[in-house]
Structures are given as C-alpha cells and as structure tokens.
Write a sequence for this structure.
C-alpha cells in the first residue's frame, strides 16, 4: 500500500501559516474539488487561522468548478450533518483538541464520512503534481452563505431524546465550551432541554484563553471546581471542534470516555432491543460485556473515528464509539457527535432516576493504563513484527487489526505505532489496577527490547 504523504488518519493537521498556509490550503482544496465537483459545504472551528484558511479553501474549490456553501464557524459534526443531508462533499477547518497554533483540513464524502485512504492518495497526487482542474471564467460557480444549519442541527438533536422528561428534571448543568465551536451550540441546546445552565469559556476565542482545547482532566479543573461548588448534577466539556463530550459527575469526578461510551451503549441497546455496535480494537471489554447482556453484537476496526463511522454506514450499525469519549450515532451523523452524546447522557440520568456517579458505578469495572514511548518511524514496522513473533511464540492469542493486541488471562495489552508521531502507544486493561499497570509496563518493555536492537 502506498504511503500517504500529507494526510494523517483524518485529514491534514499542521501549524497554521507555516506549512498550513493559504497557498497550501487553496491547492489542496482545488485538488479535492477536482475529484468531487458539485456543491461543497465549508465550515470550521474558532481558531485564529480558520477564516484565513477557509477563504483560501473557498477560492480553491471555486477554481475547480465547485459551487460552495459557507456554513460559518460551527462544530465539526454540524458540518457532517449538513453534508449528509444537503451537499456532495464538505471541508472542515479544525485542529480538534490540538493547541491553538495548529489547524487542520478534514475532507468528507457525501455521507459526511471522512474520505477513505484511496481518496486521500488521489487528492495528494493532484496536489503534488500541481494539476487540479481549473475551470474557465464562465464556468466559475457561486458562493452562498448558510447560517440556519446550527438551529436545524440543535433541533435534530432534541428530536432524538425524550425532551419532556429532561425538561421536567430541570438538571443543573455546568458546560465548559473551552472557547471552541461548542460556544455556538451547547448553551442553546441545554437551554432548549430546560436545564439550568452555568457556562464556562463560552466566548469563542482562537487563543483559547480559559483552557487548553483538549478536554483531559488536567485541563478541566475549573469545571470540576464549579460542579462541586454549585452542586450541579453534571459538568460537560467539549474539545475545540465540539465533536467530543467529556463528563464530570455530581461529585466532581472526571469520567473517562470509555465509561460514557459504555453507559450510552447500554441505553441504546435497551431502547432498541439490541443492535450492532462498532468500536475500535483499543476499547474496553466493558463494551462486550454490555452487548452480551443487552442483545448487542460488537465488531471492531483499527483506531480512528472515521473507520468506525464507515463501518457503521456499511453494516447499518446502531451505535459506535471510541475509548476517548467520541460517540457516533449513525442515524444522525457519521462521525463523533458531542451534542447528541451530551443529550443522551442527560436522558439516561433522567430515565434511570440515578446520579451520574451511581450510573457509572453500575457499569462493568475494568482498569485501563496508557503509556507511550518514542520510536523512530522507519523502524516501527520491524519492531512491531518482532513483538508479534515473540508473543505468538509465547502462546498468546493476538489480534492484528491495528498494531498487535495481546490477550492474556488477566486482560489485554495493545501496542500500536502512531500514524502521526514517532511513538508507540501501549494500552492495557485488567480487572485489577495493579495488573493493568504491570501489563502496560510489560508492553513497553517489549518495545524497548526490540527498538534497542537498532
Ligand atoms: Mg475533536
């Protein structure tokens, strides 16, 4: 398989105005436009560089003969929703949870799903050969503005939950928009759901003055404090482009993404009398336990939200997700969706009449440990081969969908080379915290052993 030169697992992410300049964006967009044609929607997050890159992208698309609809500043899933329902393709300008100096370009197909590897390669080829289609002056199409899509998106989220039950409960919600694209959706959504809302970082600002856009526990200390001090039912945080939601329970505990995934999976399976769940090989066994209990079936893909989304589309799946809190509701958006994830969790709290901490406590208990270790890109493949050989010799069952996942009696370990950085990631899971820690160290020791040979 030929290697992608620009694209990572989902689009291109670079430092804005260094590699990711207007010239770069325009040529890349023209390359995509040459292959897709038709009406293309464009939107992006709150980064300082988004307008600059967006206008370059619009110019590139128009030059290749596309008609362009500018959706403005809005969450990634809102663009995906719009494309699926109204357009032939879409381009999203976002660097998701990365620091402010980055930005990125994500390309989606007519279903709003990230384009596949072959399409990545085709776009790259036109880009590197500098020969996208350029139409004659009289074939240049129009540019439209569309600013109603956010309202429609919010209303569609609300249709998918029991709004009256949620309204009646009058939940007290602290929402941390992180100055990202969620500023334009989250407060309005929770208001429509009848919540008492307290907002944090709800002013859109590409410098992300309040907190880093990545919703990890260390970055959510203000939110945790507010939830505790105000006696809120739940704290909700989004990443920069509002495709992921992270929850804080009423006691101020940070809820890891895989717990939220399990919680919503349980509700989706209960409500639908079972169904097909799609996730990645790096996700908790809890997902399987719940599927077994509630008439679900689980299939896995390599790590990457667009791979999960595509599989859901191909198989007609019910629900999917990843261990980082990216939940996918395929009847709505073929990608991670923060707004529906947040609304679904509120619905579970209300329907089950339990606090979030109680609901989490009732889920199957596993401990996860994550580590990473540096490793030069050109030796990764060999190192991985040698690790696979060793663990097979040791008699372990393995899954090589993505890196190598090793099943041991006490749990599992997965060793994966990162697609974007010169590192290996190692996750381990077990019923005991101690064992999970030992297992992740064992995984790292395998990588060290073989990378030491070079
Ligand atoms: Mg994101």
């Amino acid at each position: 398989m030929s290697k992608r030169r620009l694209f990572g697992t989902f689009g291109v992410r670079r430092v804005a105005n260094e590699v990711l300049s207007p010239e770069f964006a325009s040529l890349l967009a023209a390359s995509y436009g040459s292959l897709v044609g038709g009406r293309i929607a464009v939107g992006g997050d709150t980064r300082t560089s988004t307008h600059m890159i967006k206008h370059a992208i619009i110019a590139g698309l128009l030059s290749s003969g596309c008609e362009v609809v500018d959706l403005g500043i809005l969450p990634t899933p809102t663009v995906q929703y719009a494309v699926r329902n109204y357009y032939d393709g879409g381009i999203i300008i976002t660097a998701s949870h990365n620091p402010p100096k980055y930005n990125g370009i994500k390309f989606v197909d007519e279903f709003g799903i990230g384009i596949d590897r072959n399409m990545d390669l085709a776009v790259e080829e036109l880009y590197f050969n500098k020969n996208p289609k350029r139409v004659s002056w009289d074939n240049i199409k129009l540019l439209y503005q569309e600013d109603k899509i956010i309202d429609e998106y919010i209303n569609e989220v609300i249709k998918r939950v029991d709004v009256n039950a949620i309204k009646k409960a009058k939940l007290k919600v602290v929402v941390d928009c992180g100055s990202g694209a969620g500023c334009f959706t989250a407060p309005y959504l929770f208001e429509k759901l009848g919540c008492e809302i307290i907002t944090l970082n709800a002013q859109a600002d590409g410098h992300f003055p309040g907190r880093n856009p990545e919703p990890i526990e260390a970055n959510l200390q203000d939110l945790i404090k507010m939830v505790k001090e105000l006696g809120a039912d739940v704290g909700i945080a989004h990443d920069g482009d509002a495709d992921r939601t992270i929850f804080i329970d009423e006691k101020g505990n940070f809820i890891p993404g895989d717990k939220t995934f399990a919680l919503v999976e349980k509700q989706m399976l209960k409500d639908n009398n079972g169904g097909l769940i799609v996730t990645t090989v790096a996700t908790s066994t809890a997902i399987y336990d719940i599927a077994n209990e509630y008439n679900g079936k689980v299939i896995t893909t390599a790590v990457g939200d667009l791979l999960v989304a595509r599989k859901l589309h191909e198989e007609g799946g019910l629900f999917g997700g990843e261990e980082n809190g990216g939940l996918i509701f395929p009847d709505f958006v073929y990608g991670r969706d923060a707004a529906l994830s947040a609304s679904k969790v509120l619905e579970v709290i209300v329907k089950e009449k339990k606090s979030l901490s109680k609901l989490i406590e009732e889920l199957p208990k596993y401990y996860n440990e994550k580590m990473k270790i540096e490793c030069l890109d050109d030796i990764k493949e060999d190192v991985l081969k040698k690790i696979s050989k060793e663990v097979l010799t040791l008699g372990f069952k393995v899954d090589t969908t993505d890196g190598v996942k090793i099943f041991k009696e006490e749990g599992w370990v997965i060793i994966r080379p990162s697609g974007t950085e010169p590192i290996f990631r190692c996750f381990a899971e077990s019923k005991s915290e101690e064992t999970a820690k030992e297992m992740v160290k064992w995984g790292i020791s395998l990588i060290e052993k073989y990378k030491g040979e070079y």
